[in-house]
Design a protein that fits this description.
Blueprint: H1 6-11, H2 23-26, E1 46-55, E2 62-76, E3 88-95, E4 105-113, E5 130-138, E6 142-150, E7 158-166, E8 173-179, E9 193-203, E10 217-218, H3 222-225, E11 240-250, H4 262-270, E12 273-277, E13 283-291, E14 294-300, E15 310-313, E16 320-324, E17 327-331, E18 335-337, E19 343-349, E20 358-363, E21 370-373
Antiparallel strand pairs: 1-2, 2-3, 2-4, 3-11, 4-9, 5-8, 5-11, 6-7, 6-9, 7-10, 12-21, 13-14, 13-20, 14-19, 15-21, 16-17, 16-20, 18-19
Length: about 375
């Protein structure tokens, strides 16, 4: 792994040259996937009653569910033995759907920015192959599929699906799949969604009976996209599925999983989601009253985010306190304005301060959280 080779690389450099080494050029992530070992879970370690698509637990992983059963999604400590993993993502079916509606699906997805994929040289004759490797475990044996889906142009959107088999129930198995490079279509060089990696764990009848597209193909029907998906993990409350060690890398050979230090992994996740406050009586930020009833407070993010983020906040009676020279204002909620990838303005109207008063914002309830999201 690149990280474990740093000491060896440094030892070969003359002492008077070490200061000139740019370590950022040595430590490069080969894994396109972020948080493939499921160690970061800023939102929660468990989420119950999941019946729709959203981000719930492990960062960067979008849970696909179009009302296909009800699940608890959690960060689990059940991992492949002796492989170095500490966490996995777990699906636990709590309400079964053995006869799903025709268009229903259940799965897992990560979305990638086009500017991070330029080195793959797609849309040229030198397009790199991509190799996917991962560990998976379930009581449901059978045929599953996993797809790459180009998202940049609706008229030329292309996908590439491959099948794999879980052979032994309740046993961790490692899977490796290679996709040839796409010489026809490439990725926009921007921060928008360009490519999806999608694991399919079940589908309704309208998504079956097609032909598996094992080369890059224009998107036609969902039946072709989900073809060969023969397992439905929503058909029984006995069903569980675990997955970890997901790595997508350039080339036609899978290498060992690239373990990043926790802080670096968290830093990569912070580009898309940042969770700040989860406790009572914690300082948030400061600002001031620009009139008798309007508070503005600047909030700077840990890390520059992908795009102008949205505010995620829970609200309730007197959830927040604003301390000022003339007293304390208890407020229920906050708004966001002037948001940029670097920071934003939090505000509240309808208060009773004095123009020019300094304001200090604190939490006033143990259920409070403030987060910012700029997911793809």
């Amino acid at each position: 792994m690149a990280l474990t080779r740093i000491a060896n690389i440094a030892s070969t450099i003359p002492d008077d040259s070490i200061a000139n080494v740019k370590m950022a050029n040595i430590v490069q992530s080969k894994n396109i996937v972020i948080n493939g070992d499921m160690q970061i879970a800023q939102r929660a370690t468990s989420s119950t009653g999941v019946t729709s698509g959203n981000y719930y637990t492990c960062d960067r992983w979008f849970i696909e569910n179009t009302t296909m059963g009800t699940f608890t999604i959690s960060q689990s400590t059940d991992v492949p033995s002796g492989q170095g993993f500490a966490s996995s993502l777990k699906y636990d079916c709590t309400t079964a759907d053995a006869s799903p509606a025709s268009g229903d699906t259940i799965g897992l997805r990560q979305k990638f920015e086009g500017q991070n994929l330029q080195y793959l040289k797609f849309a040229t004759s030198s397009a790199e192959s991509l190799t996917l490797s991962f560990w998976i475990k379930s009581n449901k044996t059978g045929t599953y599929n996993v797809a790459l889906f180009g998202q940049d142009s609706a008229s030329t959107a292309q996908y590439f699906t491959k099948a794999y088999t879980i052979s032994s129930a309740d046993t961790w198995e490692k899977k490796t799949i290679t996709y040839i490079g796409n010489t026809a279509n490439g990725f926009d060089n921007d921060n928008a969604r360009s490519l999806d990696l999608t694991f399919n764990f079940g589908t309704g009848s309208s998504n079956t009976g097609g032909t598996l597209q094992t080369v890059w193909s224009n998107y036609g029907t969902s039946a072709d996209y989900y073809a060969t998906q023969g397992v439905n993990i929503a058909d029984s409350t006995s069903n569980e599925l675990y997955i970890t060690g997901i790595q997508l890398e350039a080339g036609d050979t899978a290498s060992e999983f690239e373990f990043l230090p926790y802080d670096l992994n968290l830093d990569r996740c912070h580009r898309y989601y940042q969770n700040y406050i989860t406790q009572n009586d914690k300082f948030i930020t400061m600002g001031g009253y620009n009139s008798t009833n309007f508070i503005y407070m600047w909030f700077r993010f840990y890390k520059t985010m992908r795009a102008n983020p949205s505010l995620e906040i829970n609200t309730g009676t007197n959830y927040y306190n604003v301390y000022r020279a003339g007293g304390t204002d208890s407020i229920d909620s906050l708004g966001i304005s002037t948001n940029t990838p670097q920071g934003c303005m939090l505000y509240k109207s309808g208060e009773s301060g004095t123009a020019g008063d300094v304001a200090f914002l604190y939490t006033n309830n143990s259920d409070v959280y403030i987060a910012f999201g700029s997911e793809l």
